[in-house]
């Protein structure tokens, strides 16, 4: 029988193909926003399209690819319409495709089970992914009311989300996602903000924000997985022992649409006091990531077996989206008195975030369970209060030796995560990730620009400490913006450490991206 070669375009959804055709038309048209007249009012259309190529630099391993491992096309189309002075409409449409699944046909994908992730990761074609934002905003006097698919940002930290727990996160592209804004998933919300007209004399302003999620469409986070057939090249390298690795993961049941079990609400008080912006926050809802409890391990199904040098085991998971409740505060304060002329004359800004989680749910690891022997993979559910504190400093200083014409922005950050009533004879975990009583994250961001802002080098370093387990991520990038339309970026990402058997240890890569704005 004659073997038929799989066609390049085995399946491309019509809605994604049509959207990409529109974007191509915009890309070859003049690079600027344009307007369409609707009922005598202008509809503004703008956006961008990225084409990126990622090359793996960690060598050939089961959980990665040597050479080209991602060919990402990412595009965003934004529409803004204001039919009246107090009514605005905003919509954005997103396209995300990884052509690697069509380009690499050398059998490597099949040998590592990566071909099984193609249907999930070639085109991110869920309706809530293609339609990114869609909301109406109405303001009258001191009240602003917004309803629709939107993003609510509450946090002050970089790279780590603490208070930002309302919107889920899309991590399917992992470290290869070149546009951070595409990783935050808008959800259907009702948001109201009221600004008190005559605040106390010691305040410049005072506002109250209320958020309600009626669960019109449940959209969870898309987080990492130890399964190649689920997460592709972004799969975690979770080793159970010599020659043994996790190979599968079960999904959690989602709450029904409009079901009150999926309702969420939050309130935030926001004020400007002197040189400080202060918020007090409260949120009650459910987690965007399911809490997975490992009930055991066994041989994975035959169709999930590959790599003869490693025995792939199937984790028996009992995952669920659990209740989440927290209070917290944020602070952003400018130290006006710390302006130093010799350092550039710019005041440093301190950002702080404090979080108290009430009955946060963890699984146990290594706890003796009635009727079984002590097993590091058997888990039961426990609730513990937790505290997270984050401090960050943003300061732009002059360093003539490195850049005599422009300042260098220095942003160090420190995060402390403490779990109360931590057990003394076993650990707490969420899925396969083990946390200690005290966990720490530090990071440093350095950035500047040359050629009148056209050339921007950036270095970002993050160091994570979970007891004896530590890992680091270093990202160095160079961005060139010759004009307002085109942008070119070269980035190198390096990950190292010993957390969970170097679960990100093979993700080093180099990415080159071309961005076109219209």
Polypeptide structure, described:
This protein has 518 residues and is mainly beta. 7% of the residues lie in helices and 50% in strands. The protein contains 6 helices and 25 strands. It has helices spanning 14-28, 100-103, 108-111, 118-121, 127-130, 228-231; strands at residues 34-38, 41-56, 67-84, 87-98, 131-140, 143-150, 187-195, 205-213, 239-241, 244-246, 264-273, 276-286, 291-299, 311-320, 323-334, 349-365, 381-399, 403-419, 427-430, 433-435, 438-447, 455-466, 469-480, 486-497, 509-517. It has an 18-stranded antiparallel barrel. The chain has a 4-stranded mixed β-sheet with strand order 9-10-14-13, with no helix packed on it. A hairpin with a 2-residue loop joins strand 9 and strand 10 (244-246). The longest helix has 15 residues, at 14-28. The radius of gyration is 24 Å and the shape is globular. The chain starts with 13 loop residues before the first helix and ends with a strand. Mean pLDDT is 85; it is low at 1-11 and 370-376.
Task: Outline the secondary-structure elements.
Blueprint lengths: L13 H15 L5 E5 L2 E16 L10 E18 L2 E12 L1 H4 L4 H4 L6 H4 L5 H4 E10 L2 E8 L36 E9 L9 E9 L14 H4 L7 E3 L2 E3 L17 E10 L2 E11 L4 E9 L11 E10 L2 E12 L14 E17 L15 E19 L3 E17 L7 E4 L2 E3 L2 E10 L7 E12 L2 E12 L5 E12 L11 E9 L1
Parallel strand pairs: 10-14
Antiparallel strand pairs: 1-2, 2-3, 2-25, 3-4, 4-5, 5-6, 6-7, 7-8, 8-11, 9-10, 11-12, 12-15, 13-14, 15-16, 16-17, 16-19, 17-18, 18-21, 19-20, 21-22, 22-23, 23-24, 24-25
């Amino acid at each position: 029988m004659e073997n038929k070669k799989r066609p390049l375009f085995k399946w491309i959804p019509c809605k994604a193909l049509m959207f990409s055709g529109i974007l191509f038309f915009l890309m070859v048209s003049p690079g600027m926003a344009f307007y369409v007249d609707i009922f005598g009012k202008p509809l503004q259309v703008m956006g961008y399209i990225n084409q990126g190529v990622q090359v793996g630099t960690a060598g050939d391993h089961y959980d990665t690819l040597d050479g080209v491992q991602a060919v990402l096309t990412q595009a965003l189309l934004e529409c803004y319409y204001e039919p009246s002075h107090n009514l605005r409409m905003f919509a954005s449409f997103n396209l995300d495709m990884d052509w690697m699944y069509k380009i690499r046909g050398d059998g490597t994908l099949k040998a590592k089970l990566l071909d099984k992730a193609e249907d999930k990761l070639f085109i991110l074609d869920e309706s809530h992914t293609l339609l990114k934002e869609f909301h109406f905003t109405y303001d009258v006097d001191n009240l602003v009311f917004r309803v629709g698919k939107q993003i609510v940002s509450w946090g002050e930290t970089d790279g780590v989300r603490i208070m930002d727990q309302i919107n889920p996160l899309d991590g399917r592209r992992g470290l290869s996602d070149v546009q951070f804004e595409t990783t935050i998933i808008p959800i259907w919300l009702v948001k109201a903000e009221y600004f008190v007209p005559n605040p106390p004399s010691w305040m410049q302003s005072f506002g109250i924000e209320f958020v309600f999620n009626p669960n019109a469409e449940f959209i969870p986070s898309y987080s990492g997985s130890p399964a190649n057939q689920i997460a592709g090249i972004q799969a975690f390298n979770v080793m159970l022992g010599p020659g043994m690795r996790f190979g599968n993961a079960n999904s959690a049941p989602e709450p029904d649409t409009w079901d009150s079990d999926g309702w969420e609400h939050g309130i935030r008080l926001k004020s400007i006091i002197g040189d400080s912006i202060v918020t007090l926050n409260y949120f009650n809802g459910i987690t965007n990531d399911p809490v997975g409890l490992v009930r055991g391990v066994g041989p994975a199904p035959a169709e999930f077996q590959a790599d003869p040098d490693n025995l792939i085991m199937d984790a028996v998971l009992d995952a669920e989206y659990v209740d989440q409740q927290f209070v917290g505060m944020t602070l952003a304060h400018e130290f006006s008195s710390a302006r130093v002329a010799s350092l550039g004359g710019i005041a440093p800004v301190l950002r702080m975030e404090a979080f108290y989680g009430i009955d946060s749910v963890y699984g146990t690891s290594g706890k003796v369970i009635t009727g079984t022997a002590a097993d590091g993979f058997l888990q039961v559910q426990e609730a513990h209060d937790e505290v997270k504190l984050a401090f960050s400093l943003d300061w732009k200083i002059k360093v003539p030796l490195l850049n005599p014409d422009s300042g260098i922005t220095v942003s160090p950050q420190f995060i402390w995560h403490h779990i109360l009533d931590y057990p003394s004879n076993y650990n707490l975990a969420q899925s396969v990730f083990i946390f200690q009583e005290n966990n720490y994250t530090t990071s440093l961001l350095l950035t500047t620009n040359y050629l009148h802002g056209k050339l921007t080098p950036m270095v970002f370093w993050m160091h994570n400490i979970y007891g004896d387990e530590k890992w680091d991520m270093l990202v160095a990038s160079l961005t060139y913006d010759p004009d307002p339309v085109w942008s070119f970026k070269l980035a190198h990402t390096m990950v190292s450490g010993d957390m969970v058997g170097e679960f990100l240890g093979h993700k080093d890569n180099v990415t080159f991206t071309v961005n076109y704005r219209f």
